[in-house]
Amino acid sequence: MTKHDLPFPAGPVFGVAVDQGSGLEAAIREARGADARDDDLPTFKRIVVETLSPEATTMLVDATYGRDLLESYAPSCTRMLAFEADVYRISDEDRITALPEGLSVSDFPDLGAQVLKFFLYYGPNDPPGLNARKADLVEDIGRRCRASGVTFLFEPIVYDRALPDGMSADFALAKPELVRAATATFADPKFGVDILKVEIPVNFDFVEGFGTGAMSRSEAQAAFAAAADAAGDIPLLYLSAGVTFERFRDALAFSREAGVEPLGFMCGRAIWSDAIGIYGADGPAAMTRWMRSTGRERLARLKEAIA
Amino acid sequence: MKKLFNSAETMVDDMLDGFVSAYPHVARGQSDPRVVLRGIDRKDADEKVTLLIGNGSGHEPIAMGFVGRGLLDANVVGDVFAAPSADLILDGITEVAGKAGTILLISQHSGDMINGRAATMMARDAGVNVLALPMYDDISAAPPDRKKDRRGAPGTMFVYKILGAAAEEGRPLADLFDLGEAVRDRIVTLAAAVSPGISPLTGLPMFSLPEDEIFLGMGVHGEPGVGRVKVGPVADLVDLMVGKLLADRPIGKGGRACVIVNGMGGTTTMELLTVWAETEKTLARHGIRAIAPMIGSYVTTQEMGGFSLSLLEPTDDMLACWTAPSNTPSFPSIGFPPVVCAEKDMA
């Protein structure tokens, strides 16, 4: 599948993700306090979908709530559904994503979902046997996507067992190579990946001009370029991975300075995390108003950053 | 929605604690507490082919309730509505494997297939003689010329039971695998959903359905089906469903069909027996004798309302295995002894 065959309108992809599960539910419950209701999480997601899908190229929802939410998308917005189970024991030592039991790849077309998203923790320095199993899993899903005519978006989230603190300077210095290696691995055509959703390869808390300066701007630019080159012909979407809106906007702009031409971005919390407090304090109507103004404005500013 | 659990994090293990302490038929595995093994009636795995299946929890009594003599040797229990991991399935295979070989039954959904095949490959790499048998029977998921794309539905219980009885007799692995495929290829299932189940994880309905509509073909989690029909007399609904099942896999006049009427969790015995009565009458109008019914809520999705109807046109051997005695926590006695069947067939 070439860039032109992807089920998106022409031009960059401006994606919004709202596929978070139990973690988001807990945050909303805490924000709501005594007013918490069982349906707060789906209500929150529905507001995000209804307010942003007219402006977004695509939106990502989860398998648990997403089937109903897909019907609320604006017609212009490509439907993307996560192929992951909503479980409380998210990962064991091997960090292999739990698969849904009642959702098959072949169900996606009937559900109206054009794109399947699958995420997997991947440690390029993990034992080869474990990584071979993860590779088999991704390849199997890719094969099923091709058989069902579903676009396969794969999201490797990198880690290194030797550097367990993902916020440390040591991990920040190792991250560019981890992202590059993971990108290079899954860009292999055998996996059938149509789009790679990848992390920003540097942690700007450690980049000169943004944070401590442990990494120079030129090193950071080189890291962006190397990680993007590793994708070959596979289009890249950058994910916000929980950073603040301002930091993600700066990172997207920085990628352009580095000469990278991503397909676009997938952004979740950076756009709507502040809406949790609004929803908690003032309820759904107030959140809807906030999303229509600030939420849409944030999406527009991210579009500008990558233009 | 109020649910009687301690917490989402512990609900599966709390349930398993109750299950293994309530029934002597079952015990927890040594390798992982999510593996349920026979507690009594174990046979030498060098002499008897072992059978197991993995599934997400939330659908009880299947499949842990079918562990015991004449049925399964193990069940691997995943998280709620999540396919058990390949590692967990591998633990289950390893627990029951012996020289006679093992069959891993897989109800066909992508996650179960992916993890089941991975576990099978790892086990074979470790020298275990294990075969994976995908099971699929839901006619709403794909047309007859793409049977292999169908998903597993409650009709797969025919495979469990018939293979379980045949394995108990000591039949060899290859014969059992062939029998399993033959049974699978004779099963058709169609479901009618009336109301959604409430997810124990979220406390919310798993899909929405108008009050006056029934969804035909919907999978147990709300997977897409064939369409909606208006609520009316159950006789009309059964007539429609039997017609679709027979159109998919015809049974000739004078033929016979074993029947499963499976409740989805929120449908009463009163209703299920009514469905059975209408099924028997409808099949009779087609010149087909409905025999050896299994009626009850065995493959459930919490309090989901509705039922599925499964037909199997059995060979004599399949019928004998289907009606053979078993001893498990949940599999019922099937009320059609083989000897009676043979006599009726000769009549």
Provide the CATH superfamily of chain A: Aldolase class I
Fraction of residues of chain B in helices? 25-40%
**Distance between termini of chain A?**
24 Å
Classify the oligomer: heterodimer
Task: For the record, give the distance between the C-alpha atoms at the N and C termini of chain B, rounded to a whole number.
Answer: 54 Å
Biggest sheet strand line-up of chain B: 1-2-4-3-5-6
Give the strand content of chain B. 15-25%
Number of discrete domains of chain B: 2
Discrete helix count of chain B: 9
State mean pLDDT of chain A (0 to 100 scale): 91
Low-confidence stretches of chain A: none
The CATH topology of the largest domain in chain B comes to Rossmann fold
Radius of gyration of chain B over all CA atoms, rounded: 19 Å
- What structural category arises from helix and sheet content of chain A? alpha/beta
Whole-number count of domains of chain A: 1
Beta percentage of chain A is 5-15%
Count of individual helical segments of chain A = 9
- Top-tier CATH class of chain A: Alpha Beta
Low-confidence stretches of chain B: 337-347
Structure description:
- The complex is a heterodimer of chains A (307) and B (347).
- By secondary structure, chain A is α/β, with parallel strands linked by helices.
- Chain A has a single domain (3-306), classed as Aldolase class I (TIM Barrel, Alpha-Beta Barrel), CATH 3.20.20.70.
- Chain A has helices at 22-32, 40-52, 66-69, 108-111, 128-148, 169-186, 217-229, 245-257, 269-306, and strands spanning 13-18, 58-61, 78-82, 115-122, 151-158, 195-199, 236-239, 264-267.
- Chain A has an 8-stranded parallel barrel with strand order 1-2-3-4-5-6-7-8, surrounded by 4 helices.
- The radius of gyration of chain A is 19 Å and the shape is globular.
- The model of chain A has no long low-confidence stretch (mean pLDDT 91).
- Chain B is an alpha/beta fold.
- Chain B folds into 2 domains: 13-181, Dihydroxyacetone kinase, domain 1 (Rossmann fold, 3-Layer(aba) Sandwich); 187-346, Dihydroxyacetone kinase, domain 2 (Hypothetical Protein Tm841, Chain: A,domain 3, 2-Layer Sandwich), CATH 3.30.1180.
- Chain B has 9 helices and 12 strands.
- Chain B has helices at residues 11-22, 86-96, 110-125, 156-168, 173-184, 234-248, 269-285, 316-323, 338-346; strands spanning 26-28, 35-38, 50-57, 74-80, 102-107, 130-135, 187-195, 213-216, 227-230, 256-263, 289-296, 305-312.
- Chain B has a 6-stranded mixed beta sheet, with helices on both faces. A 6-stranded mixed beta sheet of chain B has the order 9-8-7-12-10-11, sandwiched between helices.
- In chain B, a hairpin with a 6-residue loop joins strand 1 and strand 2.
- Chain B is globular.
- The model of chain B is unreliable at 337-347 (pLDDT under 50).
